[in-house]
Amino acid sequence: MAPNSKDYDPIPPIPTYDEAVASSSRANNVSPSTPSQNRPHSPVDDPHAPESSESFSLLRNPRNASEASSSQSSHQAQRGRYPRGYRPPTVETDDESGLFSSSDDSDSDADEREADQVRREMQELEIDDSDVHGRSSRGASLWGKRIGRLSLALPQWRWKWRWRLPVPRLRIRLGRDSDSSGDDAGGRGGSAGTDGSGATDSTQTTRWRFALPKLGSTALFLLVARVLALIVVLGFLYLLFASNVFSDMARRMARQIDPETLRIHIQASVDPRVIRDNLKHFTSYAHLSGTEGDFALMEDIELMFQSYGLDEVKRDVYHVYLNYPKADGRAVQVLGPDGKPTWSAKLEEEETHSETAGHQTYAFHGHSKSGTVKGPLIYANYGTREDFEMLKKKGIDTKGAIALVRSRGSQDDPALQVKAAELAGFSGCLIFSNPGDHGRFQPQSGAPNGPHLPADGVERASVSLRNWVVGDVLTPGWGSKERMPRMKVDQTKGLVKIPSLPLAWRDAEPLLKRLKGFGDPIPDTWSSSAFDYKDMWTGNASSPIVLLKNEQDEIEKQPIWNVYGRIEGIEQEEKRVIIGNHRDAWGFGAASPHSGTAIMLEIARIMGDLVARGWRPQRTIEFMSWDGGAQNLIGSTEYVEQNDESLRKDAFAYINLDKAVSGDTFRAAGSPVFHRLLLQILNRVGDPFYNTTLRDRWEQRQGRIEGLGTDSDYVAFQDIVGTSSLDLHFDGKGYPRHSNWDNFDWMEQHGDPGFVYHALLAQVLGLLVLELSDRLVLPFDMISYASSLSTWTDKLELWADEQGAKKAAIGPEKKPFSLAALKDAVKEVDKSVHEFIKFEVAWENSVMASNGWEPSSTGRQRCEYNSRMAKFESDLLDLDGIPNRTQFKHVVFGPLQWSTDRDAYFPSIRDAILSGNWTQAQLTADKVAGIIKQAAANLVEGMNSS
């Protein structure tokens, strides 16, 4: 058929190499740097175009571009488009078929067949002409298109990516016989499957897209060798990870700082000026729990934790019961016969200093009962149950009366004073600050002229019964989150049921004088050296009538805010060393609590700096700023109850700071496990005023680790979840506790001029945190614990005999009360501890024998040893709790029901004895013995199983 026939368009012959490089009408329109995937492929010829367009080149060679027909290039440039509507590929092209699409509906079937033919050629051969453009063939990709530089200039709508998996293609070169004509020296003859004239070789028409390569013996050998090498490499990598080599390397790299260098750095980094500045800021305004001032300080501490570079800073919110005083809601008045007041107490302190915001705190009792009552005034010494019993023996009717008692002394818990008055029939209770119990009262010795509480100083306090219910009184035993169940106010055992108020000595003295001639003269045991007169009387039902008004705001779901800062450990990262201090204060809180706050923040700053220098502790360090600590230890208790299971398992130690500095005498209270470590640290810290170490001063006064009471945030950790706890502080002869006189000026002038003892306690704390978190073997003194248990058991036996244990008749056999089972259990502890600590000696010898290298298996045993050592304390829990006070679960530590005696160990046994129920006391003692014996067994069995 004729070539110009309308029914048939012959497929033009594929040009030879010489023809291809000799004619390129668009060579000058393509940048040589354009990648092959983005350069336009050869369009099929337009049968109606000039003849020169039929030889449009498939290959672009910049070198030959100048030799092409200039007229053809000009013609195409003037047309401004590619022949037959061809468009170059863009980055959105995902299918090679799009390269040959045509918008001209008049194209013939021959054009389509021609396009299909060229498409198949390129798909099968994947032509790479990068060499022609002077680009290395190594840049070509088998996995898809590459985006060329010209594509970066495309409009944004062109950037449409379709995610797909790459499809590998096996390129099979189907070359012709060696004698084929038209090949040049480089073997780059005409397109594969054609001869020099463009005729198709019929023997090369069948092409396989996928074909397995033929493997000779050499290729097969290489393949097998490479597979085996890959298996060896993968196995080696698996062994590295399985044996924890990388984690050990990370740990050892983090411990490149010598331990002694760390200790020196911590001590040298403590800056008393920073501590002073922080304390001045924290005491610049009042901040009762749940108030705006409290929230502002919480945010400040949160930002400081973040600025110190701690790994994680977290805010924790609880909703708790709190009360607040009203400005005109409180009054204490003596009423005349006509019922009108003849005298009124001032109640409030003088303005102590110029605060930066708000006003200083009103005088009130936290968690007190609202109401207004009146009755005859009766003086009852310290307000103990024994004092009220003495009044009863004297025949003094106390029903409906107003009790007047002095603070501190033999009963150091105002809540128990108010509760005892309630049980004795009183309708209200007034507690005054006795100067004799705060340092001998002299006008010149009270603040601001001296260190003691002045005549107008009012000691605020919480009267919630923390010996009975600690934390939020409406959620005893569980965290007080917003949607958790809550008790009603009249259901809880943690609140007293009569109103109360605190009084200054300035207001109490006139009341005491008005009692003269009423009732009986006070017994000698009730006298006080602070009183400037001796003619004091108890009062009776005929005493002057006193009105006590205490109207207040009560909020059952008041938000409070804890803030936590965390430094992650690298070996036992789930195990924690916790440092805590409560943030809220009754007034400005210089000594209590912000001497502790400033010290804790200084250590957080130093530890954060060490982390920034590349150091990491072995165990996690957590800094905790509690809220609601002044009012029944709420923040710390709710946190413990919310996280009790994890704390029992992972909390290694809790270090508490509260009234950290109020003098120059170092004291510590807590678990005996800290005994040896504390002495080592005190030996490193020198007292510049006494020119000796703190250890020397400690031993000179025969210091010891005292028992824990119930007056700070260690209670929940030690007594509820069994975390070994330690409370640290410097004290003196007295300070204006819980009054507005406990301010920055008092601290700078009288409490700690120069902030020397703040810095010393910061050194002690920093070294404690370092040793507890970073020693490979946890430095707990288990021998001291065993020895202390033995001592406490002997003291309990002597005390029980004083209470009449030998006269008790228990059971049908009428046997006397016996602590034999408890003493046997304590002996088991001593035996188990001596067996247990042998591991530490064996571990040291093993590491020394291997030149300091610790195998991973030995490391796991050491970590298990640490965990068992810390778990011994939590194994001393009775999960049923003390009868009638089930929040408290430790069988050794814990408060008594009616006493604040710090050295009253084994509280459940003592409570049973004090109740007079010797049968119950015997059952309790035997149960405690069983728990202690099991803890001793767990200590050894745990290590043996590891």
Automatic annotation (TrEMBL):
For this protein, the record's SUPFAM superfamilies field holds: PA domain (SSF52025), Transferrin receptor-like dimerisation domain (SSF47672), Zn-dependent exopeptidases (SSF53187)
Q: Where is the composition biased (Acidic residues)?
A: 104-114
Q: Name one GO molecular function term.
A: carboxypeptidase activity
Residue ranges annotated for the Transferrin receptor-like dimerisation domain, each copy included: 818-939
Q: Which residue spans traverse the membrane?
A: 219-241
User: Could you say which protein family the record assigns here?
Assistant: Belongs to the peptidase M28 family. M28B subfamily.
Here the segments flagged for biased composition (Gly residues) are 187-196
Q: What are the Basic and acidic residues biased-composition ranges?
A: 42-51
Q: Which Gene3D superfamilies match?
A: 3.50.30.30, Transferrin receptor-like, dimerisation domain, Zn peptidases
Q: Identify the species of origin.
A: Chaetomium thermophilum (strain DSM 1495 / CBS 144.50 / IMI 039719)
Please report the stretch or stretches of sequence annotated as the Peptidase M28 domain: 562-746
User: Is Repressor given among the entry's keywords?
Assistant: no
Q: Which InterPro entries match?
A: PA_dom_sf, PA_domain, Peptidase_M28, Peptidase_M28B, TFR-like_dimer_dom, TFR-like_dimer_dom_sf
Identify one Pfam family in the record: Peptidase_M28
| Bias-annotated ranges (Low complexity) | 20-33, 65-89
For whether the record's keyword set contains DNA-binding, the answer is: no
Protein name per the record: Carboxypeptidase-like protein
Q: Which UniProt keywords apply?
A: Carboxypeptidase, Hydrolase, Membrane, Protease, Transmembrane, Transmembrane helix
Q: Where does the record place the PA domain? A: 373-462
Q: Which residues lie within the region annotated Disordered?
A: 1-118, 176-203, 437-457
